[in-house]
Predict the structure.
Amino acid sequence: MSAAPSLIDLRSASFGYGDRSVVSGVDLTIRPGEVVALLGPNGSGKSTLVKGLLGLTEHQGGQVLLLGTPREHFREHTRIGYVPQRHSLSTSVRATVTEIVAVGRLPHRPWWRPASREDREIVAASIRAVGLADRAGEEVASLSGGQQRRVLIARALAGQPELLVMDEPTAGVDRASQVALAETLRGLAARGTSMLVVTHELAALRDVVTRIVCMDSGHVDFDGPTAAYAAHVAAHAPGSTYDHTDRPRPPAPVGGPFDRPEARS
Ligand SMILES: Nc1ncnc2c1ncn2[C@@H]1O[C@H](COP(=O)(O)OP(=O)(O)OP(=O)(O)O)[C@@H](O)[C@H]1O
């Protein structure tokens, strides 16, 4: 086991809304350098879990440590970047890519101090990291949904987080943007960026992910390396309702878990 301090540490954690518990009894540790894919059927509680650990849904039980600090006392929110689900930029926003990404630097300086040269360099590097350097001066409203998603990832990166949490970054965008987003995440992983990625499109991230965590009905039912995930999928009878995508399940697994046709389309 690595001696590096954990970025996320959940012990029997439960999250929900009001009186309703959605996620319960979750143990999860994420360490620096890991790229964890969080999978599970629709409604299994993936978003509730990531929002819960970030303090955006109710913490109903167990322990939640963020960078070693209990969630209730954690104040350094820029150390964990978050790109929420189905979030894109309003087409009515008249701002350039650079201006939007620069917002990610704001928590790092007093409101009255103008951006420093270092701030500007970090913003430019964040835009390069998502492959949008050639669009930096353009208005975000002129970009596709997938490109806007990359702008939001760049904005999170500009905060120089130690962990990047993304809720379905490749969902609902065209195939070309999915490929570009996967390329973006690949580049970040190569630079050692730790990530927790909720996804249904595992195939797109096959060579990026180091570990898979699966949820079912509010519980973690698998947590292990990508190679072991194949056996987990195989253990569930073909044709059962067990499925980590919202598309029809094929009659039998084809090749490895990453090669399932429904995950590729
Ligand atoms: N704001 C909310 N208030 C009350 N219940 C909610 C809220 N958001 C989600 N839920 C409920 O929590 C359960 C889990 O939803 P959640 O969005 O966490 O699942 P998910 O695995 O992320 O699903 P998907 O893959 O469709 O995004 C669902 O029954 C959902 O109706």
